[in-house]
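Data card: per-record layout.
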Amino acid sequence: MDGPGNGLATLVRHPRRGNPFGRENLSLVTNEPAVPTTVVVLCGGESRRFGSDKTRADFGGVPVLDALLSSLPSEWDVLCVGPERATARTGVRWTREDPPGGGPVAGLAAALAEVEAPVTVLLGGDMPYAGPVAVDLAAALADVPDADAVAGVDGEGRVQPLLAAYRTAALRAALPREPAGTPLRRLLDGLHVQRLDVPALASQDIDTPEDLERVRPRAKPRLAP
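The structure for this 225-residue chain is written out next.
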């Protein structure tokens, strides 16, 4: 492999019925059995630009966080980082970053201390449409055995570390000794990353009330198979 994004994974284009993105998705064809996966959802930020906890904001009758969790595969282990709360999805585990408010890498470090699965999918709790693409990213990682991660690339060409599937051991090894305050993108510097273009809506996070209004009229995220 010459470097990230050189397309070793074999991609096929196919339309999905009920696809909330309104366009075809990129996914991989694989006959490999599903690999045990933990999805780590970061939802402990201060939401300064939103004015309140954005993951609790109403999104078509459910909180933004619940919209995301309901779209994840039922067999995935779910570990949320942030203040614990009730969710519609059962079996959700919770942990907190150290120190509280220490940033996403501190949250990830706290989560990885409790992850046993060989694959970790990392998502932001304010990304209500990320679930179906998270499945594609995990499938892509299984198809590219020499990659440490498969990260989504949005419509503007930006790699999204909070929309990515990682090999847990590689991600754990990339953590800095002092994770608090470390920019999340810095973790990618030490990883062999394969890139996968994703629909713009999948990578949409909600930072402001205007962001929420822009995406709220869309169809609700479908349940992953």
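Known properties of this structure: The first strand starts at residue 11 and ends at 14. Helices lie at 64-70, 104-112, 131-143, 168-174, 209-215.

See the next section for split statistics.
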